[in-house]
Amino acid sequence: MMYKDRRTKSYKGNQYGLVYKNAIKENKEGKVNIHPITYELNGIKVAANIYTPAFYNENKNYSAVVIAHPNGAVKEQAAGLYAEKLAENGYITIVADAMYTGESGGEPRNQDIPYYRIEDIRGMIDVISVYPGVNHSHIYALGICGGGGYTLSAAQMDKRIQKVATVSMFNTGSVRREGFQNSQANTILERLHDIAQIRQKEIQSGDLTYNANMSDMDPEVGHHLPIVMYREGYEYYVETHAHPHSQSRFLQRNLMDLMVYDPIQFMYLIDQPLLMIVGSDADTQYMSEDAFQLAIGTKNKELYYIQGATHVQTYYVPSIVDEAIHKLVEFYK
User: Fold this and answer.
1) Which of 98, 92, 50, 99 is nearest to 70 (CA)?
2) Distance of alpha carbon 177 from alpha carbon 192, whole angstroms
């Protein structure tokens, strides 16, 4: 696998653009280090960060974790935090911007297509499996939020993943199709016809149609969104952990792909050990519970509740993240 070093432009005083608290600002000997790289995946440039443990020695033998970021997020946010924390526990980790997102290439921008998001995970496996020191028979996966759903799909297909875990798994397909908590289940066909018209208009006019971007939302609206995950998401992505590459929008025509996708449809194909972490107060809790119930192909599975945690709090609240990391390390061992 060919890849090359990459450096990001400085953002908020961090040369790697990391926005989570206490993030690495420079590499030091004997500490967790970060290695920005790029590589080609299906002809598209992908930007990624690899984290190596303290006193990393390429002649030693390490387990690795590939980490898929939430929808609309980038590698410098929650996924990077989990990558750094797992590296502190001795793992080599990789987190990449999904194709069409962040620093990765691909046009048009900000697309959310299940096939490509799953391929992003397989591409990270390709890269990390030949990274110096990685034992390719000890590659594990972690998906956060929407990345969790795509990670479940990847584990159903790609048995190079030896263990699979999710944090606050978000079923993008079901939400785009039936709506959050099935609130739009009676308008599916109507919306599919609307999307067909949107795509046809794009072909005729050349103008792309995106959904509303959360960063353009008025604070009075963002702070009073009726769904807790979206309200806390506004605070996280727009106010406390904003990153210029992170965009909540996606092409409306992507709904053609998203509405016929469901990451839990083939859960029985997961025969690897499975850990699903979810907040006890998360309004997305039902998504992990539904997936877990359908995972009948593995004899080793656990649904773990972090008491008092909401969906977005698992992205950054120190005590909640530390509890999730402790559980992940216990699981990956």
Assistant:
1) 98
2) 9
Judged against a pLDDT cut of 60, whether residue 10 lies above it is answered with no
pTM over 0.85? The answer is yes
Average pLDDT over residues 81-95: 98
The end-to-end CA distance of the chain, in Å, is: 27
Instruction: Dig out the tokens for 275 from the structure.
Output: 């850990």
Residue ranges per structural domain of the chain: 3-171+262-332
Helix (H) or strand (E) holding 198: helix 188-205
Q: 148-175: per-residue pLDDT in tens? A: 999 999 999 999 999 999 999 999 999 9
Is the domain 3-171+262-332 a CATH 3.40.50.1820 member?
yes
Q: What is the model's pLDDT at position 11?
A: 62
Q: Is the dihedral of CA 61, 97, 85, 26 positive or negative?
A: positive
| Angle ∠(317,321,322) on CA atoms, nearest 5 | 120
